[in-house]
Amino acid sequence: MPIYDTSYQHYHGPKSLTKQWYVVAQVTTQWMLRKKAVRRAAFAVVTSIVGFALLLFFTDKMQSALGQSRGLRYDEPILKFFEQKVTVGYLLSRYLGILNWPIFIAVLSAGVGAVAYERQSGGLVAILARPIRRRDYLFGKALGVVGLSVGIVAIALTISYLLTWGYFLTWRGALKGLVQLGWILAYVGLLGVLLGLSTLAAVAMTHAVRAATSYLVLYWLGPVIFGAAIFQAHLERWAVWIFPLLQLETMLASALDLTSGPDKGPLVELVERIPPAMAEVALFVHVIALGLLSLRIFKGVR
Hints:
By secondary structure, the chain is an all-alpha fold. The protein is built from 12 helices and no strands.
């Protein structure tokens, strides 16, 4: 491994104004950007913004062709042939469902390696020999693994909200939609926290990159893989304690009232059986457990 990967050459000691966690995050982000999968995921998010803009453009033109007045009033249908409500929150949440995949692809394909390569090469010993606090190392690593992907997705969602406002929303509808955007951005932030912690925890439990990646795939995509079986067996109240994606989707569906949308989607049908309070407690338990497991990454490192 090149020396500059573990030198953290911009770190000047504990009394410097340079933030220790920022330097760790910067080096980790640079490592992530070397991976093609991460760059392709970022490109997919940028491309999706163009697709969202085209969707709004053609919807607006369709309204004009049908002689309908312009203006999505937050709780009114976009078009008359939509029989049920299509709110701003519903529209952005479906877009978020698409954007989740680039985040997962970037983190699952490169995140484990970004954490594990320093430990496997012995670079972690050299890094911790410098005056870098362990909590700053963990925070910087988690931020470096997920920060780029989560940041781009948050920007994409904000741009999509502004585009929706420009095409369809009144001021009153825009203010209500802003609250829904806030809930969606909170979802993205929590997703980033859990993804970062779970990546550190997976590497701490097993130093093999492939094994850690497999754990993460099952941990995050379990509801997608086993969703039909969980739904048929009515095991969603047990599954919410295992899969963080169910916890996040339950909280988002409750906040945005997605269970009354025109097309609930498979995950919404699953999470509408889960009490939001149970999902919040399960989420808290996972954050604490992942944080404690992440500390094991220093096991055996002096």
